[in-house]
Amino acid sequence: MTIANTFSREELVNKATDLKVIPTLNGIVEKVFNILGNDNSSFSDLGNVVQYDQAISSKIISISNSAYYSRGIEIFDLQRAMLTIGFEEVRGIVTCLIFMENILKKLKLKEQDLFALWRHSIQVACSAKMLSKRLLVEDPAKVYTISLLHDIGKIVFYICLPDYGETMKALNGNGQDIASLERNTFGIDHQEIGRVIAIKWKFPADFINIIRHHHENQNADKFGAIFRLVNTSNRFAHSTHDPSSSEGIILEKEKDAIVQEVDKIMDFLQLG
Questions:
Q1: Which pTM was predicted?
Q2: Model confidence pLDDT, tens digit, residues 188-208
Q3: 77, 131, 191, 192: which is deepest, by most CB within 10 A?
Q4: Domain limits of the chain?
């Protein structure tokens, strides 16, 4: 199964360059990313930004009253809602909401494509965060945020190619590497397109590096500890990981917990 090469490399790069989502958000995304990337950030720091976004504030309050967190007393206040959920959980939820509501939905992807991209991204993020905690490597919240964004370059393929999602799903079943297939077909892959988007949207340097190289399984250590977590988790999500590695063994043991966490987040975002 192949995709007709209707777009050149240059056209795909131009499409990535032309994406205009984050600049319309009045700076909230940049502020939130700065807070999420700071190990010393606090409830107050995050609350001071989130309180000015009615959609995110309302969603956090709604989640605090869900069956996952409710203690029988209805919550209406943002600060109390954040305390009920917990800071680490709030950081993860806010990251998802920023990316989901303010980026993916604005780009008007097809529902099945949105679901596939988002579920995979969340699975990689939950897996990488789990590894970060178990191996005591890097800040789990930062690892989670970077992981959510690792496949952002696929957005351009989904927008330009109506059959991209179905084709990739079919080829994944044959164990073919998506990035290699993209390069062979278009002369560019979602990693390189993702780098173009990440630079345009002024992501941190380590975010850009991981987005650009996350499929490079050889010599993964040269890219740093966070890269190894994301790379391993991405391969685990595609069922091409090494079960004999320490990371692979951890992810296999925690597979059920990861699936439950992914389902919970998809439920929060009403994408289940």
A1: 0.83
A2: 999 999 999 988 887 888 889
A3: 131
A4: 1-19+109-272, 25-106
